[in-house]
Each structure stands twice: as structure tokens, then as C-alpha cells.
Amino acid sequence: MSFSASLRKAAALAALLVVAFVVGREVQVRRAGYGLSYNDDDSLWASQHRRIYQPAASGPVLIGSSRIKFDLDLATWTRLTGREPVQLALTGTSPRPVLTALGNDPNFRGTVLVDVVEGLFFAPDGAPQERKAHERLRAWPKWSLAQQASFWLDQKLESRLVLLDEEELTLNAFFRKLPLPDRPGVRNFPRFADNFATNGPDRQSAFTASFVRSPAKQAQMKAAWRKLGAGERKRGAGGDTLLAQLRGIKRAVDQIRGRGGRVLFLRFPSTGEFRAAETRCYPRALFWDRLLAYTQTPGIYYADYPALARFDCPEWSHLAPADAVRFTEALVPLCVNEQLSMNNEQ
User: Fold this and answer.
1) Confidence (pTM)
2) Which of 15, 185, 277, 286 could crosslink 233 through cysteines, CB 3.0-4.6 Å?
């Protein structure tokens, strides 16, 4: 046998082994209950961001943290309004940097729905809760043709292979889940429940069916929220710190409205210890009410509307997929009414 023939045989064997491994691993993770999920990385965010420059008749831009990603069902909004929202919210992140960027963007003239989770929204300037937003905003203008081509290929693969889920199934994900004990002065990030949520190509987040059915997994997430301080939050900053934040928010809102755009603040449901801590540390009159009054901007607070207040969060902070559909069905008419009132004022 010639040397080249030996190489071809070795290459064919290697390819066969790779295919066998991929197929075996894919079958394994699917049998374990994992489903398709897209990596919520810089490229996926950038792919949505470029849609904000569509005509004014397009759907609203959604900014905030994880609640608007879970609780506002994009397909339901599109079905009811004929307009597809642009999902730019970032998990665990204050939306203020993104709101500021939209305000500073002379080409943006659309509608913005802002998810207000007080502990994130009113985080101090430069706090860790802003880091991801600044990273995405820096990455967006640098989204090269090569990165876009790589993103297109990744999307094709992620739409077919469950094993590419970086949040759950990679080696790094495995290391993050190791039950390491806390050390003096160092508190490890709590372990979230396995396979608790998926992320769609439109950046829609949703609990998995197995999570919704599992009280044990829900209890694990509640324990994680406790470790992150859900029940022991400190009082939100007031005084000059809050005033400076409100000034920055108003500046961005005024810039958007000055170009013909609109802004609407939204407060999504929370329950249990999460709700108790948020109520205690961020009294509505001092934060939500003042936000609307200072910026002269309308807002929808879920507790004010029986159709929105009736929902429970399985792990205190986000709605299950079926409830997200019903919540969105109730929310859309309220948003439409608020936008119509804004049009009348203008």
C-alpha cells in the first residue's frame, strides 16, 4: 500500500471516529432531556441589534435583563401586532448603558420597551451589573464580515446539534457546575439547576419542560437566588446618586423622543422572597414612581392590572413559557394603549 493510500485510509478512519463520537454524544444529551438552544453571545446580540434600523413600522426594541427575555413572548407579540420585536435585553445586566446608546444614536427612531428590575436598573454607574452591556456595545461596531460568516455557520449547526450548547454541555460549563465550597472572603457563584432554560435564535429565553415539572429544580434555583442575595438585599441608593441616574435616563429618553421615537417602562412580575426583598429595598414610591415622574414617561407596573398580577413565578423571578404567552396577550393591549396616548401627546 502506498504512503498516500495509507494517509487516505487514516483520514477516513479519523473522520468516521469523529462522526461516531458526535452522533453518540448527540443521542446521549437528547436522551438526557436537553433540547436545542442557541449560544447567547456577542454575535447573536449583534444580529438582533442591526435590526433596530428597520422602518418605524417594525416592532419595538426590548432592553432590560432576563425578565423581559422570559416573560415577553416574542411570537405572541408578533402574532397580535404583526410587528416582530428586537430582543436586546441582557441577563443579569442593567439596561441603562443600552438606553444611553440608543439615545446617542442619531439613526435610531423606534420604540423602546424598558424592563425595570430595580436591583439591576438602579445599579451604580460602573457596577458589575453594567459590564455585559458595555461589552456588547463595544463589540457591535466591530462585527466583521468574517464574524458574520462564522455566526451564519454556527446558526446552521446550532439549529441541528444540541451538544453545541455552551451554557450546559461544554467543558467550561462542567467546571462551573462543580460543587466547590465557599472560602473565607470568597463566595462562589451558586449552581443553577441543570437544563433549566433554553435560548432561541431570536434570543427568546424559556424554561425547559423538565424544569417546569420539577419542584426540586425550582427549589435549587430559589437557593441560588438566596445565595445571590434575593432575601438580603441592601436598600437602593438615593440622594445625589439616584438623581444623577435619573438625569442620565431622562437625557436618553428625551433624545429618543426628540427624533420621533417612544419609550415605555415595564415592571414584570416577581414573587416570594425575591418580591419581598425588592419591595423592601426599592420602595415603589421612591424608585418606580419617581422614575416615571422625573422622566415624564409612561410605564406599566404589573401589580396595577389584575390580568398581569395573577401570575406566579416558579423560581420567584421569571414566568413559565405557557404563562409568558398569556402574560403577553394581556400586556399587548396595554402597551398599544400607552403608545396611542403618547402619540396623542405628541
Assistant:
1) 0.84
2) 277
